[in-house]
Each structure stands twice: as structure tokens, then as C-alpha cells.
Amino acid sequence: MLTFTVLGPLRVFRDGEPVSLGAKKQRTVLALLIARANLAVGLDDLIDEVWPADPPESAVANVRTYAANLRREFAAAGAPDVLRRSGDGYQLTVGPAGCDALVFDDLRQRAGDARAGGDLAGCARLLEEAGRLWRGSALAGIAVGARLRTYASALDEAHLAAIEELADVRVDLGAAAAVLPALRELVTAHPLRERAQALLMRALHQQGDVAAALRVYTDARAALVEQLGVEPGPALRSAQREILTATSSAESAAEPVPAAGAAPPPAPVTPAQLPGDLPAFTGRAGQLRQLDEALATSRNAGASAVLITTIAGTAGVGKTALAVHWAHRVRDTFPHGQLYVNLRGFDPSGPPLGAAEALHGFLDALGVAPERVPRDLAERAALYRSLLADRRLLVLLDNARDAEQVRPLLPGTPSCLAVITGRGDLTGLVVTEGAVPVMLDVLPPHEANALLVRRIGARRLAAEPEAAEEIVTRCARLPLALAVVAARAALRADLSLSDIAAELRAASLAPFKQADPATDLRSVFSCSYRALDPAPARVFRLLGVTPGPDIGLPAVASLAGYPVEQAKEALAELVAANLVVALPGGRYGLHDLLRAYARELVGAGEAEPALRRLVDHYTHMADAGSRLLHSRRGHDPLPDLLPGAVPPALADAADALRWFAAERPLLVDAVRTAARNGPPPAAWNLALAMYVFFYRQGYLPEAVDALRAALGAARAAGDRSAEARLRRSLAGMYVKLGRIAEASDELRTTADLFEEVGDRLERAHTQGTLAQLNHSVGELDRALSYAEVARELYREVGHRNGEARTLNAIGWIHAQRGEFESALTFCTGALDLHRAGDNHVDAAHAWDSLGFVQHQLGRHAEAVASFEQALASFRGAGDRYEEASTLENLGAVYADTGDVAAAETVWRRAATILDDLGHPAAVKVRDRLANLPQEPTTPVTSSGSALKPT
């Protein structure tokens, strides 16, 4: 028997002796055949994998030669039939023990079963055996294309997960010392892997090294914040909380033990969102005392309402600095965390942040899964207040526009504190909510002088007291202006304070026209700006016109048209000059006044191409991210990147999610910018590219805003095809928002538009979407009508895959109507078309539908066989969610036939996969396990209400 190994370098053995595999490209062909073992692999897939771009004219002949060479080697090794022709391609037959990846998967699944059955020692032995199969990274040394890259990445991820599972079991067995070296090696290689960090914390705690365990949390949090701009997730926070609780609370031993089988309550999340404190914060003693007294009074009096404080004052007076500094001073008083949001009340680049969007961010920080975030503002606010009830959290609402903007964000419990900053009218909060007002004026002379001392040293001020006094006066004692001037003085030790004062005196720019103290802030900023080198000066100007509250380094590089290193150097100079603020996660921001000043400096001829590069950057990043999140997403290819745009590559779906999460606040603004400034296609290309993330993560109102802005651009440009695609995307958002009538209207208009432009394929797609929509609201007759129209259109344009998917949908609708014989006919027809077209993944969906129908008809053996076929294809494609879904359906057949052991086995496998994916459907599977009948039951009538994929 031949043995294939992919858990390291690709090798083939016959009774322990290696088999020659030939040249590099021949090995790539074999690797793809192994990845899709026991399935036919078409020539197109093999060619695309070996030559991802520009295959030679001889590609077909070359692949045939590679296959013939492999068959000859295998025949010489005594396995002539292991590689056979199938359709226009080839199929490699591999038994369960014939490939180390299959053995690894089986061992891991058996380990999961052992653990579920309480056999922790057996679980550990199986996982150790699985670990010994690995000899390096999967497919090491093989030239991989998109398919093999996905396959190898999935294997490597499974390897890391198995290491974590073994560590978890060893810790549960009390053998933490045995896994500490492996865990330390794992977190060193993968510092952002939160489960591994949490396990290391548990292992160290079990060894009695509490300090080291908590240091792991501190280091992990710092890495996450610095590299990703995110706080630790539930696993790390839960480990920290368990260690702190075990260390500090002897009362925990007296807690009642939960009943056997009871699900533990979800661990509360502890957010820590405060921005960094200013190391050189100076002054404001009176205001700090006022805030301290308000907090003390509230605590001593046993307040029955939430404490609210408002910090108000003119722009640049230091409201945010004071609020953040004081919040850091008192944060230990609020052990359940701190929430922060910049409400962008006076951001010149765009509108204020909506309360609904701010609440979405808070709920995310509090651990609410995206699909559980309510759509309605009032419901979001109610959930938010419920999560804060009886907990002690500090909520900092920065840069508020007015009282109405912040009211939905106020906690409802007296154990919490809300601090609000703003230059607008916040008196309504004082009158209605009883907020404690704290007013900020410019710094007193002695505090302004102290600020300069902290920044540039007492010796320089003492040497030139008159110049220092003039600087303070010309900065109007505003902290922002003083900080900018102090940064210039610190950077240019060769300049005397008299030189700097003379620069301020000579500046000829007019003062800002606003209701602030009479001060020439432009002259302050201009002195620092004029001292910049050309590249940082250009970056500063361009930052003034960027959408959103902040921006990442790669986007700045595209904005300026610079290489990333040059952009990084320019930003470093701007940060040193106090003109730009460095934020966590490698992001950068500007104070509103500095942004306004920068906008005045940039010319239209400079801003327009820069914004186009920036939007192009976001569009290509969003498109790449959406492809990773949804590989079957249909879209037209984007135009080539504009010269100077330098979007980085995204590694995988997790990387894409992190990018979208960081850039989400900017993307809608970027669409608006493109719709306003052009070119119009940039607006709809970006809006369509970001659709997948916004849809899946539940940022629906924001996505609707973006799509509407892009729709306006498409209509103004007269592009009916773009208008149709945008309307169809809007319909998808409306469906998820429950606005079914609006969705139907948009889809009908979409179908008409596609007919108008002669795009019958897109019209077919739209009719299929209308079928799904009507199915979702129980309109099965109407759904069937739309699906039949879609089928006919697909047939007319020769789109056999679309026709097959629609046949499957028609069969599924008949099944939902209880017409199982008709359903059987249509699903079988879909399967025949898919198999003729060599579409394994779509065929898997048809096999799954067929299995469900056979189950309902009582043809249980056939149903099991159909589900097994679906499982083989889903596993070959690496689609773990669909694998879990099919396992759940297969378990239902076993349960109905009284095979409780088989049902339990496959449902446990499904739950393991869903747990790995972090999918909430794992809860439903565990409920089925908990209620697994011991006797045969009446056959179920439905496995779900969702229309099968089309």
C-alpha cells in the first residue's frame, strides 16, 4: 500500500521505501490530488494550481505528462490503480490510513470523542500520537497556488489547535509542568494566538506562579493592542479573571456547585479601551479636585442614579487630555472595565458618530456576538444598559456634539460613571440628568509655564524668561498650541526661545474665525509646519482631507504615494512635532483644529489624486478581504491599482477580519468621499467590496448609508449595471434588517435594470435571490415561481452551474412543502448537472439536500450515503462549517433509526468543528446531544428553515 504524507514535506512511501515524485510542478499536481483525495480533480483546477497566472499553451499536455509519470512510478511501486482518469481530470484513491492528514484528522476526532466521554488520559494519548505525525509545515517545499495554500493553511491551523487541545487536557489532568515548554514555544512563535496565551496562564497558575501567569496576560494584551488595535478576547479575559478570583477571593470555595450538565454562564468581558495617558500632563489641579469630589460624594451618599460629569470648553483647551488623565487615575475604582469612544462631534472630515454605531462598538467590546446585536437603537441601548447593570464600569464619551448624541450611551446603573467631553451645548445633561459640570478655560499663567517646563526643561525657560512669557501669550495659554510649540523647541535645541517667539510674532496668517478666545492659532501651527521636511509636510497636508477619525500606516503610504518606509519616517517626524498623534494598533490621528489647519493648506490639485489613491487602496483591500471571507462571491474584476497605491496583502480570513474591524469607521466615509469627489466607479466598487464584512458582522445601517451614497453616484453617472448591482446589495441589507417590502422593491427594480442592460445572467442571479427572499418569509409558492424563472434564464445563457444550483433550490422548496417525491426528482437533477460539470462543492450541497429528502421518505440507508458523499466533498474543499452542518443532518438520521451511539459521535464531531470556528450554532448541536433520545423517535420534518444555497 502507498502512504502519502503532507504534514511536512510531500513524500510517498511503499512499505517504508520512498517513491520518486519527479519535478517541482509534478509534485504540485500530486499535492492537489492528495488534497482532494477520492474526488475527481479537473484539468482546469490542476492547470490553475500549477500556473496561477499565464499558463503556457502546452499546459494540458504538461499536466497529462505529469500524471502519466506519477502513474508509472505508482505502478512500479505496486499500486497501478491508485491514480485514474476521471472526466477530463484525475482522481487519486487514498484509504483512511493512506495519508497522514487523514490519520491526523481521525486521531483528533477520536481524541475529541474520548474527552467528551470523560477519558482525559485517552484523549491525551491520541493527541500525542497525532502530534508525532508532523515533520514541519504542511506541504513544505511545494509551490502552492490558491487551493493548496488554503489546504496547507487549514492543516497548519489544525496542528496548532491540536497542540492547544493537548495542553488543555494536560492542564485538566494536573500535568501543567509537562506542557509548559510547548506552550512557551507556541506563544513565542504566535504571540497573537489568544487560546495558547490563556492556556499558558492556566498552566503557570497551576504551578503556583501567579505573577508569571498575570504577566502573560499583560504581555499578550500589549501585543494585541499594539499590533492589531484590539483588546483581548473572551479566552484571555476569562483566564485572567479565574486567576484573580482564585487568588483574591476565599469566598469562591463556598459557591454552590452547578448541577451536572448545567451550562456555565458566559463569562463577562472586561473592556479596557482608555487611550494612553499623557506622560507630561500638567496642571488642572482644581478641575481634578472637582472630579474627585464628585466621585467621592456619589459613592459616600449611596447614589441611586449614574454619576455623569461633563467637561466643556473651547477647542484645544485640553478636555480630552483631562478626561483621559483622570480616568486613568480612578480606573481601579471600576474593576469591570472602561469603555471609550470618540463621538467626532466636531470632526471637519465628516458627520458625528451616530449613537447606534457607538453602541455597536460598545456591545462588541462587551463580548456580544455580531449576530446578536439588535438592529434597533432603543434595543441596543437596552441591551447595553442590561450588560452594565450591577457592574462598575467607567464610560468616557469624548468629543460629543450635544446632549442628544450621548443620551442613548449613558449607563443606567449608579455603579457606573459617565464622563463626557465636548465643546457643544451639554447643559441639557446638567438640567435633566443631573450631570456635574466641569468647565475648562485656558491654562492659568503658572500652569502654562509649568507645561513648557515639563516639555523643554526648566533651564531653557530660566535662561529666557521674557521669551517664554511671550510664547505663552501668543499661544493664548491653550494646551494644544503650547504642546505644538514645545515640540518644536524640543526638536530644535539649536533654536533659542527668542527665535521661536520671533517666528510666532512674524507669522502673518489670519486667526481662526470661531467663537474662541482671540488667538492666532494658525501662526502657532505654521511655525511648526514650515520647519517640516517636504515629505512630512506633504503628508500633514493630505491628512487634513482624509475621511474618518484616524488612519493606518499603509493607507497613509497610498495617500501620499510614498513607499511604506518613507511614509513611516514622515509620520514619525509629525508625531515628534506634536502635529500628529500616534494611536494604538499602528494608527495615527489629528486634533480637530490641526486637521482644519491642514485642510486649509492642501490644494485641490494635490488633494484629488491623493484621495483617489486612498479610496483605491481601501477598495483593493476590501475586495481582497471579501474574497478571503467569501470565496464564491461574484464580482467584476477591479481596475488596476492607481500608481502610488500600495495596499498590503492579507494573509487569510482572520487577517481580513482584523483589517475590516480596524478600518470599518473609515470605509463608509471613504465611499461618501468617492461619491462626492469622483470618479463615480470608485464609490460603487468600494461599497460592493465591503458588502460581505458589513453584512456578516451586522453593521447594517452603515452599509445601507454607503450603498445609498454609491447608488447616488451610479445614477448620476447613468451606469445602469452598477445601479442594479448596488440595488441588489441594498436588498440583502434590507432583508437582514427585516425590511422585506423594501428589499422586494429593490430586487424587482434590479431585475428590470439587468433586463434593460441585457445582462440575463445577473437577472437570473436576482431572480434566485427573490426566491430566497420569499422562502425566508414563508411565501413558498412565490419562491418557487421566482426559482423557476431563474432556472429558465440560466438555461438560456448556458450557465449550467447556476441551473443546477437553482434545481437544488426548487427541490428544497418542494421539500419544505412536504412534496418529497418532487423534491427527490429536482435534487437528483441538480446533482446530475453538478457531477457533469465537475462542481464538487456545489454537488455537495445537492447531496446534502438529497440526504434530507431521503431521510423524510424513510430511505435512511440512502440518506446516510448521500450525507457521506456531501461530507467527503466539504472536507476536500476545506469547508468546515458545511461539514459540521452535514454532520448535524447525518446525526438526525442516526437518531431517528435508534443508533444513538452513531448520532452522538457525529454530533460531537460537529460541535468540535463549530467550537473551533467560534460559531454560535455549536450551542444548538450541544442541545441536541443533551436531549439525545435513548429510543427511536418520530422522523423529523425539517432540518432548518433556510433555503439551500444556490
UniProtKB/TrEMBL annotation:
Residues 247-278, 929-950 are annotated as: Disordered. One of its GO terms (biological process) is regulation of DNA-templated transcription. Residues 1-94 form the OmpR/PhoB-type domain. It comes from the Bacteria. Residues 934-950 have a biased composition (Polar residues). SMART domains: BTAD, TPR, Trans_reg_C. Pfam families: BTAD, TPR_10, TPR_12, Trans_reg_C. GO terms for molecular function: ADP binding; DNA binding. Residues 247-262 have a biased composition (Low complexity). Residues 1-94 bind DNA. PROSITE patterns: OMPR_PHOB. Keywords: DNA-binding, Transcription, Transcription regulation. Belongs to the AfsR/DnrI/RedD regulatory family. This is SARP family transcriptional regulator. It comes from Virgisporangium aurantiacum.
